[in-house]
Structure formats: C-alpha cells, structure tokens
Design a protein that fits this description.
CATH architecture of the largest domain: 3-Layer(aba) Sandwich
Structural class: alpha/beta
Number of strands: 10
Shape: globular
Radius of gyration: 24 Å
CATH superfamily of the largest domain: Bordetella uptake gene, domain 1
Oligomer: single chain
Order of helices and strands: HEHEHEHHHEHEHEHEHEEHHEH
CATH class of the largest domain: Alpha Beta
Number of helices: 13
CATH topology of the largest domain: D-Maltodextrin-Binding Protein, domain 2
Largest sheet: 10 strands, mixed
Amino acid sequence: MSRRITAWLAVSAIALLATAPVHAFPDKPVRIIVPFPAGGVTDAMIRLLQAPVSADLGQPVIVENRPGAAGAIGARATLEAGADGYTIFMVNTGLVGITPYVQDNADIDFSQHFRAVAGLTSAPSVLLVNPEVPADSLPAFIDYAQAHPGRVNYAVAGRGAYSDLSTDLFARQAGLEMVAVPYQGNAPATIALLGNEVQMQLTILSSAMNGYIRDGRIKALGVATREPSPLVPGVPPIAETLPGFEAVVYTGIVAPAGVPDDVVRRLSDAFTSALANPELEQRLFDMGMESAALDAAAYDQRIASEIATFAPAVQAFVAQTP
C-alpha cells in the first residue's frame, strides 16, 4: 500500500472519529441501590419517583434493595460498580451523618467516597410519650424528666442509630438524664411505648403511629422542626422550648466521588424535576414526608450540615462505646 493511500486512510479515520456521535448520558439503564428492605415507606418513596425520573432520563431506572450492615452493604455495592453515574445510592440523614462515624468497620466516609446528586424528601421526628406520663406539653415533660433522673426510659431503633443520637442531642440540650432502651427497629420500639415499657420515643411517624395519636394511645408533645410542620398539625415545634433544636430525616441521592459533573447535573435535574410535580408532592405528603428537592450543590451543603449537627453526639457515643 502506498504511503499516499495509507496517509489518506489515517486522515479519513480521524475524520470519522471526529464526526461520530457522542452518546449523551444516559444510554443504558440507571440503577438506584436502596439500603433498606422492600416494602417500607422509604422504599415506597423512591419507587414513586422511579417512573418520572425514568421518563426524564429516557432510560429505565432500576431500584435494587441491598439492606444490611446499617447501609454499608449498599454503599460498598455502589462504589464497586464504578464512577460512571449508572449506579447511584439512596441515603438518609443517619447514613450520611451518623453510621459511618459510629461503626468501626464501616470504612466509608461520605465526604470522601461519595458526592451529592439531589435532595429528595424530609420527615420530622416527633416526640411521643406514653399516656401514663403526667405531662401534656413538652415543658411539662422536661420538668417531669428532670425531677426523675434515670427513671424515664426512651426507645431507640438500635444503639448508634439516628433515633438514638437524635434523642441524645435532645436530652443534652434539655439537661435530662434518661435511659436508652434499644430495639430492633421502629415497630418493636413503638410497641414498647404503647405498653409503657418505655415512656418516650423521638421518631418519624408512620401511619400506624398517627392512628395511635388520634386514639389517645400515644401523646405527641413536640415536632423536631424550627417551625410548625403541616405533617403534624397542632403539635408545637420543640424549638419553641429548646431554641434551634431540629431532628429531621432527609433523604437524597449520592454517587461515587468520581462521577463527572455533567452526569451529576443530568441526574440532579431529573430528580428535582420529578419532585416539582404537585400530584407527586401530595402523594409524598400522604406518606408522611415533604418534598425537599435540592440540587447537587445544595444537597452537598445539607450533608455537611447534618455531619456537623450530629458530631457532638457521635463523639460522645464513640467515647462511651467499649
């Protein structure tokens, strides 16, 4: 083959490469790893977003449940899948602000291994007490607990869990000495509250809990937001008694740290656009949460704030753990 023909072929190949179409992200299905069991309210929420996000991206969105090890199994699976944006991870406040710092074997630091994609929803914690507690307001409960140090038990969904450390923050700010009683999840913790095995629980509400409140089987004394929450009408903010106190569970999407900026923007736009739908917002509200759409930059700030908020409780927990 002559040098002239060889050179022409080389130039032609370069031209073809230059004019070849570049596939825009995504050009195949996107997988969301959810570190919670199927069937729960968090799982139901992400599946509610599945269809509109898929329509926006033009590709199927697959939800894969990978529960276990307080979220570490799902986090590792996401990281192992690579940093191309086709495998992303659903998280909440506990996973980004608490779990990595209280588990010795977690080996995951969200500030280093992941980057924010989009904030999704928020759900406030509510302070609940058994009806036998002689207090019908938060100030009265604080007075009662201060007068009975070490005699008020509170339920937590596992030691080192979000409910444990958020209640610890509440107790520290209120100057209370109470006893944490761990349970394997919110359901048995609520049963314990109904039976007066524990006198208090600070947790996000389920449909069943709302029914217990309406029936008078549980008293709701405060919502852990700085302003009144439409999710629990008539229940005053804890911040009215303890200024600045807040314990709100946020959910969001993160991706491995190496995912390119343009891919993150595309994913972020798809999720925030889906959350702007009024019908979807109402369905979320009916599930006990509010739309809290945040783009990548704003959700990154939220994660940093959550880590900082729980840092004192995390440090205290680690210091007390053998």
